[in-house]
Amino acid sequence: MALLILLQDTDAGVRFRIDKPRFTIGRSNDNDVCLDDELVSKQHAVIEAIPQEQAELHFEYYLQDQDSTNHCFVNEEQVRLKKLQHDDVIRIGKNNFRFVDDRNDNLEETTRLHKTWLPGVFIARKPKK
Known about the structure:
With 129 residues, the chain is an all-beta fold. The protein is 0% helix and 50% strand. It has no helices and 13 strands. The strands form 3 sheets. It has a 6-stranded antiparallel sheet, with no helix packed on it. A 5-stranded mixed sheet has the order 4-3-5-6-9, with no helix packed on it.
């Protein structure tokens, strides 16, 4: 799946996992991401995860504005419907999010934890190439 990361003063903040087919963003409490921002509509935007037929467990993600008053922006371009790409910056009201597509994680660089002979002690090691 994918993530939305709330950006705060150029630093990464809260992470929201997009773990269902329809992921809602808005000011109302019944949204998946609830934003306390007067520039955000109650039902501001939806991210839809569309499964790709040719690749099992891979999705394409689309951001759709829900006729909000202040619109949605992707990379500072106003959009009504936009296919999201890894590292796109989404602006909703005063809030900026970075869209992270898990398919773009470099698994070769992932550090793995390994047990040692000491109970409860682990060490971190990168996989061998």
